[in-house]
Design goal:
By secondary structure, the chain is α/β, with parallel strands linked by helices. It folds into 2 domains: about 120 residues, ATPase, nucleotide binding domain (Nucleotidyltransferase, domain 5, 2-Layer Sandwich); about 110 residues, ATPase, nucleotide binding domain (Nucleotidyltransferase, domain 5), CATH 3.30.420. Helix content is about 30%, strand content about 25%. The protein has 7 helices and 14 strands. Strands 3-2-1-4-7 form a 5-stranded mixed sheet. Strands 10-9-8-13-14 form a 5-stranded mixed sheet. It has a two-stranded antiparallel ribbon with strand order 5-6. Strand 11 and strand 12 form a beta hairpin. The longest helix is centred in the last third of the chain and has 27 residues. The mean pLDDT is about 95.
């Protein structure tokens, strides 16, 4: 019989929705994905209460992986433009570990999605198209977190054009044209070998991707959760 342990509770905090499921030791789902709307206002207190509700519907687990839509350093959320100012300097990893009494690791959501989608070779860029614009660069599997969404582009920032605000302001047709131009710009900037597009707004994409562009499932934002524990799992196998 297959050994499921350690079971990882994977959490994806988004500006629009909160998602959760459990993964076995190989990163395969062992539960359905549960989702609730992100509370408004999305303060840490309200978001954690909503996550408590989702957790109550999950089976027993051994550890927790969290993808967060903003800058994360050493388990502390530094910025969260699409949630609430109270997330600035919030010790999410430590507080959630105390709250749920399980080991917790927190990373930027684009990092987690990339860990679930990338191949671990050459230069791979991950862009998540959701409420905002998440981003992460992988060089031969090494993670290089960044906030491309807030980098100046055209007259504003990448996120202003490609995030949900851009969809609402410009409409789907123009948003798609802006996305194509942004892809060209990122290729010139990062010389990526492969681009992965994730997030809920990938469903709006009309272009036919080139062979080196992959539209990935929103599930990868959860499936990459096991990879946050890769160092522990490798050590346990030795």
């Amino acid at each position: 019989m297959k050994n499921l342990k350690p079971v990882t509770l994977a959490v994806d905090i988004g500006g629009t929705g909160l998602k959760m499921l459990c993964l076995d030791s190989e990163g395969k789902p062992i539960t359905d994905r549960m989702r609730v709307l992100t509370p408004i206002p999305a303060t840490p207190e309200k978001v954690l209460l909503a996550l408590d509700t989702l957790k109550a519907q999950m089976p027993a687990f051994d550890r927790v992986s969290v993808g967060f839509p903003g800058v994360v350093k050493h388990g502390v959320t530094m910025l969260a433009f699409n949630l609430h100012p109270k997330w600035t300097g919030y010790p999410l990893e430590a507080n959630l570990q105390k709250r749920w009494r399980k080991p917790v690791r927190v990373a930027n959501d684009a990092v987690v999605q990339g860990l679930g989608a990338t191949q671990g070779r050459d230069i791979e860029l991950v862009l998540t198209l959701g409420t905002g614009l998440g981003s992460c660069l992988f060089v031969d599997g090494h993670v290089c977190p960044m906030e491309l969404g807030h980098h100046p582009w055209k007259k504003m920032t990448y996120e202003d054009y490609l995030g949900l605000r851009g969809v609402k302001k410009y409409g789907k047709k123009k948003w798609n044209k802006l996305l194509e131009k942004a892809i060209e710009q990122t290729a010139a900037t990062f010389n990526w070998d492969h681009l992965y597009l994730g997030g809920g707004n990938t469903k709006l994409i009309k272009m036919k991707p080139q062979p080196n562009i992959t539209i990935v499932s929103n599930m990868d934002g959860l499936l990459g959760g096991v990879a946050l524990w890769r160092d522990v799992d490798l050590r346990d196998r030795d």
